[in-house]
Design brief:
eight-stranded mixed sheet, single chain, two-stranded antiparallel ribbon, 18 helices, 10 strands, alpha/beta
């Protein structure tokens, strides 16, 4: 009947995986072994284990870099029942080469501009409010007017600022180098109709600048000090109820909960920047967690592994563990709304697609840490007044081609230029 050897690279879920393995073996008689790589060693552990003749039958991959590095071990999965249970959005984030899909994404995450509903309600009750409710915030110009107005009247509202400090400390700058940059990247790729191209010009970086300038101006911190503000500092400003807006993703809930912002007061706006057509889109989605099948495993073990995945995403036991205990928002058609995780930020993000009918911003693959560092360094110089905005655009566009070219030279691969639906 085959067996399953799953090499897991997410140490934070090892206990839940062991429980799933035991439950599946008890139900089916199929043996499931779970081995977990130590934190920070996924590449080394995968390299070592996959080179063995009795290597894992299934394993995790995260990001295009791991897909490229381990592609020679990947079994196509597009014809499997497990893959066919993915939503259309989930399928769009699978790693593909032509018509063949090589991974099964299993965790969806969203990011945008988190906001405190209570603060916005209090603001809307004031005579100086420029909106009647948060539903009036439908584009960048309205959002900017609200941010500016809250900043102007922060003392009356009992706040330290309108927007949490956009920190550029090493612990925090990923929000603006890896996430916020993907918004102008998406719209440029959308214009070209592809998911990837080397020829990025920074066409919409002026829109990024507009939002960046607003966030800096309307935050509690002087621009000259932003480079020293940490992720913890910025998060604390929001979780203590001292600012109205906080650019981040659904993962921030664990740092927000239990403080001064009630779950029912958490909402999320898209990253509005004033780009034509942005009113059709909600928050951005990112899928970094994927299951993969080892093509060198026996046919029986490959089938057993795909059956195990199908069971995880379709059985009551598997679904409850994946969504409620592991806390993942999962892109499978087998999950009802009440079976998704109890994360109010996930619910707030999904309102845009489920209730408002908005499309989801696609998160493009990025070429790695050096590209992010180039953008962050240029942002620091610009924000503290010692550099020009042109350097930020160059870091975004010119560095994009440089870093991806270097990546191709080392791996022989680039992200596919598939059609962007």
């Amino acid at each position: 009947d085959g067996k399953v050897y799953f090499l897991n690279t997410k140490p934070e879920i090892v206990d839940q995986l062991q429980e799933l393995a035991s439950a599946y073996t008890k139900e089916t008689g199929i043996k499931v072994d779970i081995e977990t790589a130590a934190s920070g060693t996924s590449n080394q552990t995968l390299t070592s284990e996959l080179s063995k003749t009795d290597g894992p039958s299934m394993f995790n991959i995260a990001g295009f870099d791991q897909y490229a590095k381990f592609k020679k071990y990947l079994e196509p999965v597009q014809d499997s029942e497990a893959y066919k249970l993915l939503t259309d959005e989930g399928k769009s984030y699978a790693f593909k080469d032509g018509d063949e899909a090589y991974s099964i994404p299993y965790a969806a995450e969203w990011y945008g501009i988190i906001y405190n509903k209570k603060i916005i309600r209090d603001y809307c009750a004031k005579s100086y409010a420029v909106i009647k409710s948060v539903d009036d915030i439908t584009d960048y110009q309205i959002m900017k007017a609200v941010m500016d107005s809250i900043q102007e009247h922060k003392a009356d509202l009992g706040l330290n600022g309108a927007v949490s400090t956009p920190g550029l400390d090493a612990s925090d700058n990923y929000r603006f180098s890896a996430h916020m940059t993907r918004i102008p990247m998406f719209y440029e790729l959308k214009d070209d109709g592809v998911k990837f191209t080397l020829d990025i010009t920074g066409k919409y970086m002026g829109n990024y600048k507009d939002l960046w300038d607003t966030m800096v101006k309307d935050s509690p911190t002087e621009s000259s000090m932003i480079s020293s503000v940490t992720y913890e500092d910025s998060t604390a400003e929001f979780s203590s109820g001292k600012v109205a807006f906080y650019p981040n993703g659904v993962w921030a809930y664990t740092q927000i909960k239990g403080n001064d912002v009630a779950d029912e007061d958490l909402g999320m706006l898209p990253y509005f920047m004033g780009i034509d057509g942005e009113e059709e889109y909600g928050p951005a989605a990112v899928y970094d967690a994927n299951w993969a099948i080892n093509k060198n495993a026996s046919d029986k073990d490959k089938k057993a592994s795909l059956d195990f995945i199908k069971w995880i995403v379709s059985s009551d036991t598997g679904k409850k563990t994946l969504a409620k205990e592991m806390g993942f928002a999962v892109p499978f058609t087998t999950f009802g709304d009440d079976e998704q995780p109890d994360n109010p930020l996930v619910a707030a993000a999904k309102v845009w697609s489920d209730d408002k009918g908005k499309k989801t911003v696609y998160s493009a693959n990025i070429p790695g840490q050096q590209w992010m560092d180039n953008i962050s360094n240029a942002l620091v110089e610009y924000t503290q007044g010692t550099g020009r905005w042109d350097a930020v655009t160059d870091a975004f566009a010119k560095s994009w081609k440089t870093e991806w070219t270097a990546y191709k030279d080392s791996t022989g691969m680039l992200p596919p230029s598939d059609k962007l639906e």
